[in-house]
Amino acid sequence: MNAFSETDNLANIVEIDDASDSRLDDIRNLNKSDSRPDLPGGKGLVIAEGNLIVPRLVRSRFPLRAIFGTPSKLAVLADALSTEEAKIAATVPWYSLSREIMAEAAGFDLHRGLLASADRAPELSPAEVYRGAKTLALLEGVGDHENIGALFRNAAGMGVDGVLFGAACADPLYRRSVRVSMGHVLTVPFATLEGTTTTWQRSLQELKDEGFRTVSMTPSGTVNLWDAMDTEKVAILVGAEGSGLTEHAMAATDVRARIPMSAGTDSLNVATSAAIAFYERLRAIAG
Amino acid sequence: MNAFSETDNLANIVEIDDASDSRLDDIRNLNKSDSRPDLPGGKGLVIAEGNLIVPRLVRSRFPLRAIFGTPSKLAVLADALSTEEAKIAATVPWYSLSREIMAEAAGFDLHRGLLASADRAPELSPAEVYRGAKTLALLEGVGDHENIGALFRNAAGMGVDGVLFGAACADPLYRRSVRVSMGHVLTVPFATLEGTTTTWQRSLQELKDEGFRTVSMTPSGTVNLWDAMDTEKVAILVGAEGSGLTEHAMAATDVRARIPMSAGTDSLNVATSAAIAFYERLRAIAG
């Protein structure tokens, strides 16, 4: 499959040989772009890197803006896109540039040699995320971009239908989260619950009314994880590494579940304990 | 509990105010020490960082050499050590130094302000690791220090008795592995199986003779993970991220087990899939 032969749109490839060209602004100073208030939403664009993730951005709900790559990487991408993806990709410019020009614009060497930019899509409402869902993940205070990325990767891999954010979580569309998630922050729907650090928990009632069993993951849980996942709908709550879920959040859930840990060891990394809960949920549905 | 009041050995604290002092050689240029062939085993010393991990090094099988810290961090450590740990720690020098001197010697700023060094202990034999064990992890081709560290952390937390290395794995005692493992590369016994990349698999027969069911973790598994963990002894095999276990290794195991993944997603990170297998094993024993 070839983006160009399919679409007859070869004219979209534009060569750029000057790093200061304004058409490279989407990928300029990438390490800093998420803090640039002049960009949409004050949070920067959505940036995808490499031949695994760029196609996921292309077919996501995020409006594609442009594709940037070395000539060879653009050719690989064109071959890798499905017919449907190629049609979308052909609606935006493809900028062909050397690895050096790309590094100069981005501010560091991009080993993968391929980038795509997209606008932030309008945020989904919580109801758009939980309606029709059987399994949700709900995060409180997870401030680490890599943990958020890993959580989305595992959510996508093990059939979690959506992710909800309570208070104090990091931006899932930050470039590092996109990369660590393998692009699945773009494919798994997410929304932010309304409220402050001490009021967002009221939204849990909404989930309960929708039939979700709300399960707090905590080392101090009163039931084993494997006894908590067998209802039709489940929302799995995980908290910040170290501090965990707030008591306020746990008190608002139906059950506190634990992974029994060996004496003298620490609680698991938040993405790891969530992955185990997703697995247990998958097992409960499939087993 | 106080290391000094317990042991009457306050004289062990030595102040150092010159970064070139040879007594700081154990922590000099830490980013490079693992490649220094002049150090024991050609692989450098074992270095632990911070008040969570240093006590684990103190009570480990690795012979403690010295402790380095800012005055306040040494005081916190002294309070945190158990009586038994304090006795061991009192047999080595405690070097008190400023954060600046520590940074100058180590080559970068150590946020935790506390380090300890130890010699590499003699390597254990595979039999020393599997004798008496009920659950083992066996790694092939896992070259990433963070994945190895995370795997040991999860192994310790979920009751895995030991770790065996097939060919082509990274050094578990590298500083970053020690840190990511939360010090559990020092507490969970490990050994390397003899042989090359294509011959180490013969050792699997030895494990089978000892009564272990050998289970390959692979997305192409023929049974679900939850149907593979219910024998008295289990050895869980995981391979490199991306390529996974070699066919040679999988062919030598009793069963190939899968975590069923959603369509259009990638296999899980090796430390994550191992963590899920450890959980399933824990569940099989406890449930």
Structure description:
Chains A, B: Residues 138-279 form the tRNA/rRNA methyltransferase SpoU type domain. Chains A, B: This is rRNA methyltransferase. The structure is a homodimer of 287-residue chains. Helix content of chain A is 32%, strand content 18%. Chain A is an alpha/beta fold. Chain A folds into two domains: 3-118, Ribosomal protein L30/S12 (60s Ribosomal Protein L30, Chain: A, 2-Layer Sandwich); 126-286, SPOUT methyltransferase, trefoil knot domain (Alpha/beta knot, 3-Layer(aba) Sandwich). In chain A, strands 8-7-6-11-9-12-10 form a seven-stranded parallel sheet, sandwiched between helices. The first copy, chain A, has a five-stranded mixed sheet with strand order 1-4-3-5-2. In chain A, strand 7, helix 8 (175-180) and strand 8 (190-192) form a beta-alpha-beta unit. The two termini of chain A are 38 Å apart. The A-B interface holds A 52, 150, 153-154, 156-159, 182, 184, 224-226, 259-262, 265-269, 271-272, 275-276, 279-280, 282-283, 286-287 and B 52, 150, 153-154, 156-159, 182, 184, 224-226, 259-262, 265-269, 271-272, 275-276, 279-280, 282-283, 286-287.
